[in-house]
Amino acid sequence: MIELTLAMAERAVRAAQEKAKALGAAMTVTVVDEAGRLVLSARGDGTSFLSPETSRAKATAAANFRASTTELSERAAKGGLFWHLVPSALPGQVLPTPGGTPIVVKGKVIGGIGCGGGTGEQDQECANAGAATIS
Predict the structure, then answer these.
(1) Which of 25, 40, 74, 91 has the largest CB neighbor count within 10 A?
(2) How does DSSP classify residue 2?
(3) Which of 41-45, 87-91, 120-124, 130-134 has the lowest mean pLDDT?
């Protein structure tokens, strides 16, 4: 079993925040393990008070559904009762909006990274950059 370590999460957070800086966006970055348990969260300077919760909910969604939250938001936009009920069934725990990416090592999802503070596109770019550092 491959475990998501604190050192791995620190690398991912650093890469995501560096990407946010390059984009000119304040960003909170959260990393969770495969079960959605918190490994590390770093609130970016100038981000809203909600960004730690939204970034964690994006990370949890990406880890548990094994897909980017951009993909999940596209599924939700196509309709289907499931995607409209998930946020209310799991309040504050899962957010299917852009900004979350599963962390995959050797073909296995070992966690998720979620970003919040920029536009949805910026959040997703930062999450992708962070996830890319873990292999």
Answers:
(1) 25
(2) -
(3) 87-91
Reading the block at residue 110, the tokens are 């070992």
Give the whole-angstrom CA distance, residue 36 versus residue 54: 13
**Helices 51-65 & 120-131 angle (0-180, nearest 10):** 60
Flag whether the pTM goes above 0.85. yes
Helix (H) or strand (E) holding 58: helix 51-65
Q: Is the pLDDT of residue 90 over 90?
A: no
The rounded distance, in Å, linking the Cα atoms of 20 and 92 is 24
DSSP class per residue in 72-124 = HHHHHHT--HHHHHHHHHSTTT---SSSEEEEEETTEEEEEEEEESS-HHHHH
What pLDDT is stored for residue 1 in this prediction?
Answer: 66
d(CA 72, CA 65): 8
Residue 69 CA to residue 86 CA, distance in Å, equals 13
